[in-house]
Amino acid sequence: MKALEDMTLEELWHLFPIALQPYQKVWLTWYEQEKSLITQCLPMEHVVRIAHIGSTSFGSIQAKAIIDILVEIAPWEKRMEIAAILKKLGYLCMSEDASRISFNKGYTPEGFAEKVFHLHLRQRNDHDELYFRDYMKEHEEHAQAYEQLKMKLALAYPYHRDAYTEGKTAFVKHITAIARTAYGNRYETKAYAISLHEQTKEHVRIFFTCTQEQEVRKHMYQLPTSLQEAMDIYDAQDSQTYRKTIFIANEYIGDIWCHDMADEKAVLSCCIFAKAYWGKGIGKHAVAMFLADCKKHCTLSFISAYLYADNLGSMQILEFNGFLRKQTFIKDGKPCYYYEKALHDMV
């Protein structure tokens, strides 16, 4: 049996024909499972976004049973390091140029595997597919028109992937332009100079003062009730605590720490008190940087976190970094979540 790399393009197209299937809910499950695997293994401090794109993400129309995954990274200079990890996860490089690398997984000499993935490794903000996806999900009439076009092309070119793709190009470009206008900068992100530093007593004082504001404090699971208590905690730091301050350029904006470190386990806490930086993805990357730092300097196998169930921002930060929700419970009359991440899975 021929290896894939020894096959001609025509042989590959016949082995992997264009075959559309009705939408299947399991496609979302496959994406979530693969995203979890990728998140556990990639250096998330360099990952801007992981997203489900392509027709399997629309939730309604026929599509090839291939899950398209977008991975944006920064800086782009990290692409070879990340590509090497993806190859360990079973991905094969399909194409590469100066600004993009495409991978596939699930292509075998016998044909498609049960689960097939295309992974698109991109630079920050190279993500037109997100705008196209959202417009298709929100405008059923255009999604149906796209489905009809795909069905027509699949019948005409079942064994010619380039022709099938080229036949969709004008439609995709047209809708993407409309979506870009309609949605503005919905997915554009700014590069922030995030850094972690050692904590000093002056940081303790600033942190305590800034976390007295109710809007900040209401999201925190547990904080000192007095400045003296905060100082006592600082003075008592030992091998069971590991703490860093978060900076944007020269501006101190928050703290991140793990505590109750014992038996290779610890509890993670993070607070960005500078509200001007909320909702900008800084917490996600500060946590990713801290986890990478912990892996180097701490003997930990698992790290956990507790949060109030209405703290959606922290929930997104944890899930971006591969934490899995393990338990729901009540504290102070409020529903709470317990999350956990295995650090030894990080490549």
Automatic annotation (TrEMBL):
Range of residues in the leader sequence: none
GO MF term (any one): acyltransferase activity, transferring groups other than amino-acyl groups
Keyword set, alphabetical order: Transferase
Pfam families: Acetyltransf_3, GrpB
Keyword field contains Hydrolase: no
Domain N-acetyltransferase: 200-323
Protein name: GrpB-like predicted nucleotidyltransferase (UPF0157 family)
